[in-house]
């Protein structure tokens, strides 16, 4: 059957269940409903450090790839904001006090593997993180600010100072997804990789919940 939907819409439709599972993870749900602690939030920021280090390092290496290049923008770069957040939240020695959880280590390995071998796979990971940060991330930021009294320090990760209109930015990003020179088979592979990325995010929330439970015990 021919695909009648633009690719970006097909992608969203076929991954909405993956999104719902990530969004609905207990760890995230607790943070969003006031049951999570400031430490929980910091633990999440620490894992973002490793994830974005991998995405942004591999993006730099792939910046001349004709498939990847249209999706890259300096306006998206998150690592400096994450570093500043961690310095604010954990102090000068923040780097020595964080380490990747098992799911983060696997997630990072997967990002590096696909980035080295498969441009469409890299785009799948890039899409899953940045379009999410520009969407639900904005809701998360508002709630974290309200709950933990953050102004901008501590939630810089969610502040895209160079993107005045996230909606327009996301629309342009989706147009580029629609314009990518992928046949149906490649589109399916990219969709599957987005599902893989959602799965990593859901599993990471489970890791974070388990770490929290074991430190309370
Ligand atoms: C509390 C957690 C979350 C909330 C409340 C949330 C909320 C939302 C909302 C409202 C949108 C739609 C925005 C729009 O149509 O413009 C969205 C889109 C998106 N979210 Fe989330 N989200 C959450 C977690 C996540 C996670 C963990 C990921 C993956 C890392 C993610 C990835 C995405 C992506 C990729 C989109 C864009 C879908 C598309 O339009 O193609 N979200 N989110």
Quick structural overview:
This protein has 217 residues and is an all-alpha fold. The chain is built from nine helices and no strands.
Bound molecules: protoporphyrin IX containing FE
Largest sheet: none
Radius of gyration: 17 Å
Beta-strand content estimate: under 5%
CATH superfamily: Heme oxygenase-like
- H/E element string? HHHHHHHHH
Rounded to the nearest angstrom, the distance between the terminal CA atoms is 54 Å
> Mean pLDDT, as a whole number?
96
- Helix/strand-derived category reads mainly alpha
Say how many strands there are: 0
CATH topology: Heme Oxygenase, Chain A
Percent range of helical residues: over 70%
Describe this protein's structure.
This protein has one domain (7-210): Heme oxygenase-like (Heme Oxygenase, Chain A, Up-down Bundle). Helix content is 70%, strand content 0%. The protein is mainly α and 217 residues long. It contains nine helices and no strands. The model has no long low-confidence stretch (mean pLDDT 96). The chain binds protoporphyrin IX containing FE (HEM). The site of protoporphyrin IX containing FE has 18 residues, from helix 1, helix 2, helix 6, helix 7 and helix 9. InterPro entries: Haem_Oase, Haem_Oase-like, Haem_Oase-like_multi-hlx.
For the structure shown, list the relevant keywords.
single chain; 217 residues; mainly alpha; Heme Oxygenase, Chain A; 0% strand; binds protoporphyrin IX containing FE
């Amino acid at each position: 059957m021919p695909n009648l939907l633009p690719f970006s819409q097909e992608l969203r439709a076929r991954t909405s269940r993956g999104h719902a599972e990530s969004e609905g993870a207990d760890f995230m749900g607790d943070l969003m409903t006031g049951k999570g602690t400031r430490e929980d939030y910091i633990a999440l920021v620490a894992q973002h450090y490793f994830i974005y280090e991998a995405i942004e390092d591999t993006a730099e290496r792939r910046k001349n790839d004709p498939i990847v290049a249209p999706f890259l923008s300096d306006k998206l770069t998150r690592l400096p904001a994450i570093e500043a957040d961690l310095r604010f939240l954990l102090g000068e020695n923040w780097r020595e006090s964080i380490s990747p959880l098992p799911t983060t280590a696997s997630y990072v390995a997967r990002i590096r593997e696909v980035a080295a071998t498969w441009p469409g796979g890299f785009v799948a990971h890039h899409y899953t993180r940045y379009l999410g940060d520009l969407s639900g991330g904005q809701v998360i930021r508002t709630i974290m600010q309200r709950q933990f009294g953050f102004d901008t320090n501590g939630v810089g990760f969610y502040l895209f100072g160079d993107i005045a209109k996230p909606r327009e930015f996301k629309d342009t990003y989706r147009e580029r997804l629609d314009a990518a020179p992928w046949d149906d088979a490649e589109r399916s592979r990219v969709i599957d990789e987005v599902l893989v990325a959602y799965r990593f995010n859901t599993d990471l929330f489970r890791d974070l919940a388990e770490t929290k439970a074991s430190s309370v015990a």
